[in-house]
Amino acid sequence: MSADRLVRHVGDALLTILVMSAVVFVAVRILPADPALMLAGEYARPGELEAIRAALGLDQPIYVQYGRWLAQVVRGDLGRSIRTQRPVSEIFFARVPATLELALSALAIGVVVGLPLGVVGGTRRGSWVDQGVRTAAVLWNSTPHFFLGMALILVFGVYLEWLPTFGYGDWRHFILPTATLASFVVALVARIVRASILEVLSADYIRTARAKGLARPVVIWRHALRNALIPVVTVVGLQFGNLIGGAVVTEAVFAWPGIGTAAYQAILERDYPVIQAVVLYASAGIIATNLIVDLLYIWLAPQIRTE
Amino acid sequence: MSVARVLRRPGRWLAWGVLLVFALSGIVLPQVLRPGPLEQNLANRLLPPGARGADGTAYMFGTDALGRDMLARLAYGARLSLLVGTVSVLGSGSIGLLVGLVSGYVGGVSDRILMRLVDLQLSFPFMIMAIGILAAVRPSVDVVIVLFVVARWPAYARIVRGSVLEVKSREFVSAARVVGAPDWQILLRHVAPSCLGPLLVFASFELASVIIAESSLGFLGVGIAPPTPTWGNMLAASRNYLRTAWWLVVLPGLGICLVALTANLIGDDLRDHFDPRLRRR
Questions:
Q1: Which residues of A162-192 are buried (b: 16+ CB within 10 A; e: fewer)?
Q2: A91-306 maps to which CATH number?
């Protein structure tokens, strides 16, 4: 891949992050709730509010606040939580493992279960597996994460009493949140693999492989699947943002101690620096993932590489 | 359309029928039902579906923790869901159509700038951004709609631009140009109609996505705020009654799923209609 192409992709990603940080910064600053008032309480003495505003830098013009904040961001310092006074990066990164645990296991299960389902759906069109996969894909596309989570809690937690309804602890706490998130990934992966296999199976090289007498499984799993996986990698990678978004909502349902729950609490408490950190770090992570997927795609598909 | 054809595709008519029922209930029921969606009656708290209240009122879908009629609240939720969904889709679809047409037809520098903007915005993680923005402003119906319009137009623009590029070099467009038709006429008469199919298909899928996203934001507490009942904030409130009142969870949840499902099925059907190549798959 040429160097200027790499530079352009990376530049785009950085620009996106910069624009996004400005949007979030402005959005969080124009809100009616006054953090100084919340900190000082309703019965603050005159002068106390101004002192707190000055201490937090809230009395400066907004572009000064943004510039100052951005300079800190570049230095890796995102400020402290207005509530707890702990550094926000510390709060954020303490929550990342739980979210990644949830998102990555959902992704892994989704690929392991969804891939074979998609291959069978694509190669045996109209079979019961195919029809099941297609029906499930439409149903899951029409269901919000949080409702599926609550329905699972209702069935397995409340009525059958097999599993805990929320929280974080042993493996039993793990099942319902992971199942909720994973089922969406399964539906997505199966649908894309199916479409991709259907596309690939009509290609000339598949006919050649068959004509030279290769066994059907070899043709499908070696020749067809390898080529069918290219769009799958792209789509699944680009869905990483949605996956994290879904994880945020799923966490809120199950009180899973990840960044979603942290963001949720910060929103309720109007804790700006924490909201900014979560949105900025999470978005930066998602944009970086998209960038990696873009580059991976170019590397996987030689016909684009030489373009 | 003949009766035979209607019967051959029962799914299509079922989907439109369900959507119509939800729309009509949303429009009519909150006006005519008494007690209304906001009227509390603490004597009738948490009545299961089908139960009668102390005063003899029948509650087909039960009551919530404050004794409010679930049917009236669900109908109001349907109204808001469909209102936010359709207005958002119309708004972002129109902007996307305009940008896509200009970008694809004019090309050159304006195309590069517009598509750069589209790419930039498409890589924004929408849910996380929406939480950040809605936490800062007081979320009303208008604010939520504006957010969806602003966030969702780029995808439409990209789709329309793709169709324009495909059609632009076709003979009938060149023919119109040779005859001396002005650009605006070529664009409106010859290019735009070919973009409507993919646009409509995508819009139906978007209707489902927007309705689901709106309910998710409501569930997280950054959507349209109570006491205005939306399916999302009703579900958020139901979390405290998971053990005692299943209908508070199941009914609004089914409402979201049914409406989103019909929108998705209509999208599938439109795709088959506009792209017969896919029909046999």
A1: ebbbbebeeeebbebbbbbbbbbbbbbbbbb
A2: 1.10.3720.10
